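Please go through the protein record below and explain what the tokens say about the fold. Record follows.
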Amino acid sequence: MFRTKPHPKSSKRSYWYLVLTLFLSLMTGLAHSSYHKSLWPIWETNNPLSTKVISHQKWDDFLNKYIIINDEGINLVNYSALKKEDLESLKNYIQQMTQINIDNYNRQEQLAYWINLYNALTVQTVASYYPVANIQEINISPGLFSLGPWGAILVTIKGTPLSLDDIDNRIIRPIWNDQRTHYALNNATIGAPNLSKKAYQGSSIDMQLNQAAYSYINSLRGVQVIEGKLILSKLYDWYEEDFGGTKQYIINHLLQFAKEPLCSQLKHVNTIDSYIYNWHLNSPVVTDEE
């Protein structure tokens, strides 16, 4: 049977189409892989009877000195003003955290520990590469198509190398299964929940998580209802499984913390129409005059 020979240009187009398709598939997979929750059992050990307290004073001092609250209620880190001695103090704080045997503490102290460590490591990483406009520019994660610093090994605890992804997706999320922890972790972006101006403490962790959730959900970065359309932070798309796995469960979660008029608006919607996210660095804009 006679067969038509493919035109060379057609074959070339098909080849590049397949390459592009494969590339996009890989990128899509990688984009979602960092949100996959997978328990790391070695970090489950705790002492529920412990009354020992971990000091986060150095981190608390750093936050109090360098966080600026802008007119929109967004906590910004004044990276351009960081002093050498304060960066050294931050480094010492992180080093002290690595020397703690976290197994010996109760769950509340452990959660405060991991949240503070995650946020401190994020700030230290951005400071090390500043000035950058976007944390995704800090391409230190392993992997050909990886973006940002989240997959890079930044610290070693109990002889175990850890990345930001490990702390979030393999320790905090699967061990505590608390939706509110998403409001405590900050990834150095304008679109993220605020970096708290106070270090998290085991004794007040529940109150602090509630406040963080309340603050974000009632901000335009977190939730908006415009002409009956529900627009949420991309955070709720990335971590949909943690908020119940459906759009209605997410709405139910929002209702727990929404104040008026948002609360009434949410009662009249039954789906999520779109997501938004601002990836700009959570730092004041530096002008030429400065």
Residues 8-33 form the longest helix (26 residues). The two ends are 77 Å apart (CA to CA). Confidence is low (pLDDT under 50) at residues 1-6, 17-33. The chain is about 40% helix and 10% strand.
